[in-house]
Protein 1
Amino acid sequence: MRYMATYDLMDTVRNTNQWLGASALAMASYPVFAMTPNPMLQWMRAWGEVTERTFQRMVVKPDWGIRTFTCEDGKDHLVNIETVVERPFGDLIHFNVAGREEQKRKVLLVAPMSGHYATLLRSTVKSLIVNCEVYITDWHNARDIPVSDGKFDIEDYTLYLVDFMKEMGPDTHVIAVCQPAPLTLAATAYLAEEDPKAQPRSLTLIGGPINPDANATEVTDFGNRVTMGQLEETMIQRVGFKYPGVGRKVYPGLLQLASFMSMNADRHSKAFQDQIARVVRDEASDHDAHNRFYDEYLAVMDMPAEFYLSTVDRIFKKCEIAKNEFVVAGRKVDMSKITTVAIKTVEGDKDDITAPGQCVFALELCTGLPDSKKASHVEPGAGHYGIFAGKSWRNNIRPLVLDFIDANSDAPKAARKPANKNNAA
């Protein structure tokens, strides 16, 4: 009950702040107050508007917002989001562009389960849907999963990826972003032994902690500094009575968000102060830059406790992937069994979450893969977010990834603009 009470207390605090914001907005917006203009009422209204939206977004799953796509025929085609495989902890979904010929590049985008929804990769999906058939892993909020559906740890996550790859077939090109990179590598190695014909053609690992000890960051230092007992005591709670997953042990999204915000507290505080000032001056809008960013950033999901704890223990502390000692369902996964899947790693020169050196270590693990099937890229000046979204991804990394896909595919290359010749390889 102690863990459940704490979970409900956090949700109560969030709900109270949302209510305070809504109350301030409603009170300061009474028409009668317009008769006696007062700057304090304007500030109160602005504070209420920003506060209500902020705390409301914390429990709302963002929409993909990808409704139409303009194809080469100049027409807008509807984008249907279809569930291909449905599972308790996550689905495999497909962005099907209605009326468009099926694209030769079939891409599985493996989204992180690290506090935010898969919609965090919305811009990545938009950039790939131009000339790819895009599939993505859509992980569910643990608070909404009944206890009767059982546990979900990194071994279960790996087996989910194995099943998704089998469903998509051998012509698939997998792109794993950040947290799932080591487990996606493990899933590929698992397939190499269990069902070699189901392996994907290529695997692109973007900013993933394959070997966290290769280049230390604050994230790896934290993982090594705290004990598993401390983590379980301070981070793990049981879902309250409000949600379908009542009683399930989770790492709450609200607690994760508090950690995210504390890392750059001054910058976030200034961003909200500036937004309140813009609302006062009537310069803000529903989809301005601030709201677009924070509607996504504030939308957090609970992680299953087993998944979070096993990630810290086995990926960061024991480095089972880096030591090639990872075990799934009682079977040791040997990375050297990967002999046909082309692998490319992408890292950001300024990445302070997964520093350069951590991801490229995957190529050292794959001793059975010829050098002709290996590639790596370090993007100059790019941080963690920039290597899968933003200018660095669009202008430099995406063209390189598509070239890599084409070079390891039976399909002919699609016509497109040449990549930037100044890329660092």
Note: Residues 411-425 have pLDDT under 50 and may be disordered.
Protein 2
Amino acid sequence: MDFNTLVFLGFFAGVAVLTYCVPRAAKPYLWLLASYAFYLYKPENARLVFILISVTVVTWVCALAMDSVPQQATRRLFLVVSLAVCCGFLFFFKYFNFFGELLGGIMGLFGGKAPHLDLIAPLGLSYFTFQSLGYVIDVYLHQTRAERNPLKYALFVSFFPCIFTGPIERKDHLMAQFEHPRRFDYDRIAGGLFRVLWGYVKKMVIADNIGVFVRAVYSAPDRHTGPYLLVASLLFSYQIYMDFSGCCDIAIGAARMLGFDLLENFNRPFAAKTYTELWNRWHMSLTNWFKDYIFTPLSFYNRGAEGFLGKLQGWFNIFIIFPISGLWHGASLGYVIWGILNGLFMVVGKATAKKRRKWAKKNPLYKVPHLQGIWQRCCVYLLFTACIVFFAADLYGGQAGAVFTGLFAGWGQAGPAQLAAGFAKLGLGGGTLLMLLGSSLVVELIEARGPVAQWIRTQRAFVRWPLYYGLCLLLLFFGAFGQSAYIYQQF
């Protein structure tokens, strides 16, 4: 079920009440039952629940076997089985038709035809497979012990606040909390409830209202001129951040109300001054997953080279993560190109870091720290937006090529009044724009102070309660109810 529905609110309220009513020993089983009820709510997920069960059973059995068998070759065999099952489901349901189309293009030159299957990937497939893979790899590397209780492990894989949109949890972080459920704590409940409200405002007030305009422009980019395409592109970067981080706020806040601390997934990425810093702040659980299970093994394998060859190996290890991340997000060339561009920007940034620091000393803007910071953040945001065009084009069915060519057309053809009327017609009128600016400013100022659930509990009542009412009014009057599910649910 989607987070932004009344069904979910009623469901979660029932789970929260039962959590603090049942005995401590029964709580994990209540959460497991709730997680599967949450997953089975939609018929398309119910038909494919065997994938979730299969991934859970195979990785649990293989991890248990690896923990019991001392022979390295046997342990490696069980690891390969886990990798084959998880990656096999991912490839078949998410990438079979994508690679089939690529193969079909080659076979078409010789009169052949590639197979095509009518497949629907279950929601959350990329999340629960990566979470399970991280677990078995950690067991293989002796970084954690295998979980003996199959039902508690099933809860770890399927825990409903994070199964659709992350964060991608680690066994030692989340499982320990299942073993020691927290007692009722008013401050935790209140802080979690505020974070849920905060997430709904970010998603339904900011992201969805921006999405009305971006969808109108990107669904038919050839019909719009440069000013509209430029604004839509710049706004989409902020839209997807508000959408995804808002969803994570709801997941983290809901888990907090049940007594759990999930991993943080965002840390104000657009406050970053370098591209590397941005990706250290964006989708942090996925970035850390790639770093631990792809970058680190590659670095170990490619170690030893000296000089420029060693640098090339290091840059390759960084670069390769991003096309893989692009494929993780979606089975299309647009997502792969998005990943390739991000990887190139990351590598170029690291390769030129020393020279840019030397040039910075001669840049008059860098004599004033505040101007320097603004300039660096703007550059990072623009680079990120140049990549995200391919993401948005795939999401809304437009053509990235049409966006880039259209960016240079139509400037100066319409006056300010005509442009304003055009923006209003597409869903970005003066009132909406003012609301977006005001609410975004509030979000940025408060999040700059740290995690909002902890921050709000340190404020006096005359700060807390006006903020509560203000956010509720924003949601009531400007929330785009029923507009869409969360963008990242499909990944």
Note: The mean pLDDT is 87.
